[in-house]
Write a structure and sequence with these properties.
Length: about 575
Amino acid sequence: MSTLKLPIGYDNFGKVVKNKLNIVDKTLFIKELLDDKIAEIILITRPRRFGKTLNLSMLHYFFADIAYGEKTAGLFDNLKIAQAGAEYMLHQGKYPVIFVSFKDIKDHGFKHAYAKLQMLITEVYQEHHYLLGSPALNDNDKELFTMILEGKAEQSKLEIALKNLSNYLYKHYGVKPWLLIDEYDTPIQSAYVHGYYEEMISLMRSMFGAVLKTNPYLERAVLTGILRVAKESLFSGLNNLKVYSILNSKYAEYFGFTESEMQNLLVQAKLEHKIDEVRNWYNGYVFGGTTVYNPWSIANYFDEGTAKPYWINTSDNKLIRDLIIKSSDRFKTKLEDLLAGKPIECDINEDMVFGDLGYRSEMAIWSLLLLSGYLNVLKKEMIDDELKVTLDIPNHEVRSLYRRIIKNWLTDEQDDELYNEILSTLLAGDIDRFADHLALFMEQTISYHDFGNDPEAFFHGLLIGLTASLYNNKNYKITSNRESGYGRYDYLIFSHDLTKPTVILELKRVKKSKADMSEKQLNELLDKTAAEALEQIAAKNYLAEAKKLGATKIIQIGLAFCGKRFSITYVD
């Protein structure tokens, strides 16, 4: 454990400075923002826990004279922005600021999400309640203000509430306000996951359109989020918006810790000898050409003194899980390559179109994984107006997160024992017990909804899930859909320990020939098809690769399935 105390869970810049916590000084972000004379509205997208909220809070405390009832003067005197030049400090405390964080606007239904949004706007208005006493506001202004404060405004008035507030602040101060919006995309992503996307996107489009599109009362606006939601669906007609994603170099060094910042922290903590461990676990991200470390994980690492996954529990991964489990067989093959440490090539679209996710678009899923921090770009190039990238898994922490997500395709925490029994019996070559455990598992855990429209891809995913812990394991090599002999086998678990069995599986799907097929007839068909799968292993010499690698103890498995029902036959 280190004596270095980085802010963990702090999203209020004023408290960080006043509590004298160790900080990585990112205040030159303010300078670069002020130097950018072109972009009136800036959207910066970064994965969760990369300092977006704290940076926006820093802007709030810099530009506002008073933030949350406290004077901001003096907070920046010993920070880099104060040494950048007097012309920048002239902006400190000189603007009204509207700060809105949408991080908590998520729910299972639109009604409750809307109620939270209404309360959020009320809180924003409450911070500026002094405006009710301003002689610059007329009676109509104050009436509308009071309706928002009391939570009585109808949706049409809520949609223009932020624009109205910018107008009120300009009238009162004679200075145009800065608008800071944090996690703008959280309500949209939650709405997509829980099935009220159209209602929420319509509401957010109206709200953002009102406050951002040709708003004469606004000085500048800075938005942050994880995803770059397609302009057509959210920011239609907004021509003054500039977007900086993880693929852009501008502002890259202000979100996450750079290599030099990381080394300086290790020196302060007297942990220079831990640099290789820290790089392996938390480095690997490249934002716009700048190498960065995950700040959330680094702060927790210094606090606990142990290298382990910290980022893993900071979000629910339902959307990622659902997309992966129902993805195509081709997608799952690429995912296997990533888990095995092999980079992949694919097309990326930086603009998130949630409708594409509904069609299981591979481009949309890879784009989501990249923008959310689950993947890293090694190389990128534009070919025929398509952005083609080479991707890999950033580091050991994210790799462990994949394994957990993949394992959770199949099981809740209470099913761990059964999950472990399935894997251990398969690796031990006890196929009869493996079949018994798998049958129980399929009956109790797997939903028919998990099969989607591609049962073959589901069973491919099932095998990836069962063997997720074996990828990059020095004792095993996992491959699938690879050429061997005279064809392509389905799945191979090669054991480098030649005293333990290598397992090769061939899968076949069974379709009911008639709707009223009896259980006996289905079982007979499954048994027959499983035998055919086993025969195919021999007929096409699928054992060639395993034998070439030196395996002498090989278990051949034919598995036929129809929904949750399956049959296994094998040769040891």
